[in-house]
Amino acid sequence: MYRSQLMLSLSCAALGAGLAAAAQAAPVTVNGGGAASQYFNYAAPDVNGAPVAEMPLFDTQQTGVSFGTYWATISGAAQAAMLTNDLTCLENAETGNNGGKCSNEPGGANTVHYGVSESVFSANSVSTWATSTWGQQAAGDLIQIPALGTGLAIPVNDTNLTSNGQIGFSDNDLCGVFSGLITNFSQITDSPGAPAAGNFQLVYRVDSAGTTFLLTNHLAAVCNSSNTALGVTFTPTSSFSSLFGSPITNQIPGAVGITGLANLADYLAGLIDGPVPQAISYVSPDWTSIDSQTSSAKLSNGLPSPLLVASLRNGATFFLPTVTNIRSALNHVKVGTNQTPPANATDGANPLKWVPIVQIASTGYPIVGYSTLEVPQCYANKAIGKGMEKFLHDHYTAMAYTKIQNNNGLVSVAEGPGAKFLNAIKSNIIANKNHWNVNVGNPTACAGLPGR
User: What is the pTM of this model?
Assistant: First the structure.
C-alpha cells in the first residue's frame, strides 16, 4: 500500500567503506518530513541502488549526518511538529496513531530538525515560536525559506477525455466548480474540447493540506460574487471545508473528502471503492500523467498515476501544469506579495518576509506558488547544523538536485524571480555575509541556547 511506501526509511550509506572510514561512528540522524506532494523530490527510495531524490543523494556524502524517515503527511503536521518540537505530530499523521494527532512528547528522540510545507506559517504561528519553550528560547530564529516552485494540477475524470488538456477551465469555471455553483460538465462552455454532459463529483482534501492552500490562494484573488456560489468566500487556507459555514455537502451535494494526497490519487484512479464517477479534484502534478514518465510517484498498485488533467486558461491561452508553464508563471507575477527578499537584519529575522506568494500570473499556468523548507536556527548537535547548511547549499545549487526537482514537476528557486531569494538565502541563511546573524548555526544568535 502507498502508506508503507511513503514510510520507507531512507538508506544510510556507510561512511567511507573500508580502511580508516570503517572506524567512523554511525552518522547522526536528521528528523522531519511534511508535505506528501514533495516526498518524491526529497525522499523517494533508491532505484536499482541509485538515489532518485535529494536526501538519499545527500546521504551518500561523508558529512557525518544522514536523513532518516521522511514522514510524508501534510503541511499542517509539519508546521505543528516544528512549533512544538514533536516528531509524533508527523508520525501519527502518517500512521494514524493517537487518532492522527500529536502525542505531546517533545524533544529527545522526537526532536524535529526540519519541515516541508506548501503553505506558509501564519503570523500567529510565528508569534507562538517567539514565546514558545521549544521556539526562540531554545532554537533561535524560525527559518522559513522558499524551497521549490510548484503548481497545482486539476485532474478530471470524464468519459470523453483521452488526453491531458482536452478539457479546460477559466478562472470563472474554477470559482464555480469549487464553490458548488457549477455542478455539471455542460456548464463548462469555454473549453478546448467538449466534456461529457452530466454531473461530476467534487473530491477535496479533508486534512490541512498545502495543495488546498495553493488552490484557495489563487481562488481568493479571482473569485467574486458573480462567479461563486452564494455564501462562499474564498480565502487562502489549508482547510477546504472551513470555507463552508455548514457541512460542505449542504453546499455541494455528493462532494467527497479524502485524507492524504496518495489516497486521493488512488481514489480517482479507482483503487479505492472501485471506479469513480465523473469527478474533478486537485493534486500536485507528479501524481498525474503529466509527470508520470519522470516522477517517482506511484499509486498503491505500484503503477504511475494515469490521471488526466485540465488545462487552465490564462488570458487567451490554455496552459497545462508542465515545468515550463509553471516556470513561466513564476516569472510573470501580476498579483502577489513578498516578491523581493528581506533587505535588512530585522526583516531577515522574520520568517513571514522570506516566501514569495503568487496569486495571479500574467502568463503561464495560473495556479503556482512555492513550497517551503522550515528549519530552526540553532542545533544542539553541531554536526546536524553543519549538515543542514551543506544540504541547503546542495539543494539550491547542485545540478543533480535540479534534475530531480524538474523530474517531479518542480521548478528550481534559481529559475525565475526566486533567484533573488536564492542569493539572499546563500548570503544570509547559509552564510552570514551581511552580518545579520540570521544564518543557521550563527554562534552569536545561538550562544547559550540548547538548540534542536
Answer: 0.89
CATH of domain 2-150+335-446: 3.40.190.10
Domain boundaries, the chain: 2-150+335-446, 156-320
Q: What's the grid cell of residue 4?
A: 508503507
Q: State which amino acid sits at residue 306.
A: P
Mean pLDDT of 204-233: 96
Cβ atoms 371, 210 nearer than 8 A: yes
Compute the distance between CA of residue 112 and CA of residue 80 in angstroms, rounded to an integer: 10
Same fold, 2-150+335-446 and 156-320: yes
Specify the residue for cell string 547522526.
28
333-337/357-361 β-pairing: antiparallel
* pLDDT tens per residue, range 233-271: 999 999 999 999 889 999 999 999 999 999 999 999 999
Residue 119 has pLDDT above 50, yes or no: yes
Selected from 3.40.190.10, 3.40.50.2000, 3.50.50.60, 3.40.50.1970, the CATH number assigned to the domain covering 156-320 reads: 3.40.190.10
Other C-beta atoms within 10 Å of 272: how many? 14
CA dist 257 → 97, 179, 401 (Å) = 20, 14, 34
pLDDT computed for residue 18 by the predictor: 36
185: phi then psi, degrees, rounded to nearest 5:
-60, -25
The backbone torsions φ and ψ at residue 157, rounded to the nearest 5 degrees and listed phi first, read -95, 115
Residue 165's CB is within 10 A of a number of other CB atoms, namely 19
Position 15 confidence tier, pLDDT thresholds 50, 70, 90: very low
Among 35, 329, 306, 346, which Cα is nearest to 155's?
306
Q: Are 265 and 230 in contact (CB under 8 A)?
A: no
Residue 16 above 80 pLDDT?
Answer: no
Q: How many CB atoms lie within 10 A of CB 26?
A: 10
- Spacing of C-alpha 245 from chain mean position: 27
